[in-house]
């Protein structure tokens, strides 16, 4: 599982950080976009990701730093000749805004758009390689997190070749039939049962990641943490700044998220959506996280690419200058 951060700033961009967008990829065939702040398509130009292979877009909430890039990105996909259906999983009001924008600007889509309204979803969203659960959060407007749960391929079966050879059964047609799960009748009295010659590989537990929108109550994620190896959560403020601005913005501090992650022993944590007031001086946020969380953490920067391995180990593939990890 691979995550690429395309924007890590809150509210407004900085010279080094664009506003919110994150790409999630499990296979080379397609990828998923979570949030689409202004200029996300420009960020994509500096990545290996293509709008032709984008499968679905998830928008956590209607605030502009999470969705203003959508009309341009959709129009560019059409100009690039996309024909495959594109799924949009969005809040209801955002569908209204987007359809009006595309109509008023006379944007012609070369591909169908399939909307899923978050407020109407009762079940998980099926994707080729994930099941997705929607998690309600706490913000000034309705905001959501998405839990992406791996869909694993059925474990492969392999022949117990040593047993076959010990019984004097030479490689050939019989081996092929047993490999396909077919019983083989050698005679009226002798039948080789496929189940006796097949070794079933052990299937691992699927990994899951939670990618959250704006949220001032990290504890809302607690009921959804089964099999979760990574949480991506906003840390807009330090606690000192959060206390100064008050509760109206309804954002989390680094301390809040760190305490939550420590309490539930999360193995991996990535913080993002940093207030532009910090610019690129992340020392205060890093110190706060380190004080309250003793797990494996990263402070995301634009174009960071992370790989979550099958064993749940999180690895940073690229390291920009002045990068902070724990």
Major sheet strand order: 7-6-5-4-3-1-20-21
Q: Please describe the biggest sheet, giving its number of strands, its sense, and whether it closes into a barrel.
A: 8 strands, mixed
- The figure for the number of domains is 2
Low-confidence segments: 321-325
CATH class of the largest domain, named Alpha Beta
Structural class: alpha/beta
What is the CATH architecture assignment of the largest domain? Answer: 4-Layer Sandwich
Q: Could you state the CATH homologous superfamily of the largest domain? A: Ribonuclease Z/Hydroxyacylglutathione hydrolase-like
Overall geometric form:
globular
User: Share of helix among residues?
Assistant: 10-25%
What is the radius of gyration?
Answer: 24 Å
Distance between the termini: 21 Å
Number of helices: 8
Count of extended strands: 21
Describe the secondary structure blueprint for this structure.
Blueprint: E1 2-7, E2 9-10, E3 21-27, E4 30-36, H1 40-44, E5 54-58, H2 70-79, E6 86-90, H3 92-104, E7 113-117, E8 125-126, E9 130-136, E10 144-150, E11 157-159, H4 161-166, H5 173-179, E12 184-185, E13 191-192, E14 198-200, E15 208-212, E16 228-234, H6 239-245, H7 254-263, E17 268-272, E18 274-275, H8 283-292, E19 296-299, E20 305-308, E21 314-316
